[in-house]
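so ive been stuck on this for like two days lol. basically i have the seq below and the ligand is zinc ion, smiles is in there too. i just want the complex predicted, nothing fancy, no docking runs or whatever. if the output looks off dont worry ill sanity check it later, just need somthing to start from for the group meeting slides
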Amino acid sequence: MILRYRDLAARVYDDKIRFPTFLPNSQRSEGTDGILVNVYRIWTDKDYRRIVRKNVHEYTEHDGFILPESGWQQIEKYEDDVTNEEIVETQENMGFNVIAPLAASKVKDAIINARIAREETQKPLFLEIPQHWTEEEIKQFVGETKEWAWGYGTKGDNTDKILFIAQAIPRSAKLHVFGIHHPAVIPILAAAGVDSFSSGAFSRYAEQWLYITDSSIVPITRMDELPCSCPSCANRTPKELDYDTLRQHNLNQFVVEIKRTRNAIKEGRLYEYAKRRALTHPRLWSAFKKIVRSDWVLENQPFPKQSSIYDFGDVEERPEYRIGLEKARKMGVKPEDLAYAYPFGQTYPEQIKERPEPERFVRAVLKYFWGLELEGVEWKERHGIPRDLFWKGERIGQIRYEDGAFIPTIKGAELIAKRTEAPKNRIVLNEKGVKRLKEDKTPLTTNAVDWDPELRPYQEVILVDEEDRVVGTGKSMVTAREMKELVCPVVKLRHRVK
Ligand SMILES: [Zn+2]
C-alpha cells in the first residue's frame, strides 16, 4: 500500500488500483477501475456450467479489479440451497483474486463460513457485516477473521455503525459500503474512512426513467434541459435520451463523484467539499456533522496541512482547529503567538489579527510543533516573517512559508533529539531500517520499533536508530495506530544522514 494523500479519516492510496474507489454493481464492462460481481447471480444463471469455466475477467469483459459479493440476502430470501462451499468454489474456478464467503445473519455461522473459505483458498477474503449485528457481534467477527481479510463490507444507512466498523477493523483492511443511492453520499462516507463504494442504482433508475442530478433524482419527463456535459448529455435534449444513454449518464455521476472526492482529499479540502455535498439532504447533513466531529476523525486528521481553512462560521468545530487549540494548550503556547502557524495563520478571514514579535513567534513555533525550548536562536526574515533559524552559528532549519511549521535540518533534528524525551517527535528504526536508509531507500513501518505515541499524518518527525542517534527526517503519512497495522513507507523522506 502506498499512501498518497489524507484528509479527515480519508486516505488516497494505491493498492493495485487507486482508493477510494467506486465499483458499479454490474456484470457489464463499465470503464471504471473495478466492478462488484454478485456470485449468487452467476450461480443461478442458466448458463452456469459454461460461465464457471471462464475466467471472471473474460466473463465480465472487465480487466480491472473485481470484488465479489456472495448474494447471501437473496439466497436467504429465496431459501435457495446453494452452500458456502459452492459459492467459494465458483469464485476459485473463475479466478477471483479476492474471495467472498457466504455471509450469514448469525455471527457464528458467518465465522464458520469464513473459516471454511480459508481452508479452501489462500486468497484474501471479503467479509460482509449485516446491519443488524450489535457492536459486540461485529467485534467478535472481526477478531476471528481479521488475519484473512481483504476487507469488510456493509450498508451505508447507519453513520454510527460505519464509524464503529471503521475503527473495529484493521487499518490495512478495506471498508466497503454497498448500495449507495446517490453520489453525494460518497465524500461524506469517505471522510469516515470508507475505501470503496458500490451501487446498482444507476441502472435501476434508468429502468424507471429517472435522471441523477447534482442533488436529486428526477423523472426525465419533467426535465426541460440536461444540466450535465457528460458524453450522454452533451448536445442532447431530455427527449433524446434512451435507456443506454440515461444509464451511462447516471453511472457517470458516481464516477465523477469519486474523482472529485479524491481530488478534494489531495487538495486538503475534503471538509469543505463534503459539507457542500451534505447540503443535498438533511440526512446527509446530520451524517456529515457526526463524522467530522467524531473522535475517529480527530485521530486520523493530518496535521499540519498546507491548505488554508475557509471559515464559514464553523472554524471552531473543524478537527484541524480543535487539534491546534489542544496542542497549543498542552504545550503552554498562546494561539496569538502562533499567528503565522497552522491552523491559526491559515484561516480566512483571519482569526488572529495582531502579529506577534518575531522572537515570540520563533519561540512559540519551536515549542508548539516540537516541544523544543531553546535560548539564543537567531533568524533571517523573508517578507517580514522569520524563515531560516540558526543556533550557535549553525542553520537548524526553516519555518515553512505555507503553514509556519519548523522543518529541521539534520543539525536541528539532533538538537531536538537531545532536548526532547524519546519517543516524542521520533520514529525509532531497527538495524534493517537504518540500513535501508543508508541505501537511499525509505524504511518501512515494519522497520520501526517505537514511535511518538501521538503520531499523526503529515507530522514532521525525526528518524533515529535504537541508540537515539538521528539518521534522517521526514513527513509521517500514518497515525500511531497505523504504524502497527500497515506495511508502507514510514515517512516521505526529507533528509538522511550520509
Ligand atoms: Zn450527463
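Residues 228, 230, 232-233, 249, 252 surround zinc ion (CB under 6 Å). The longest strand covers residues 149-155.
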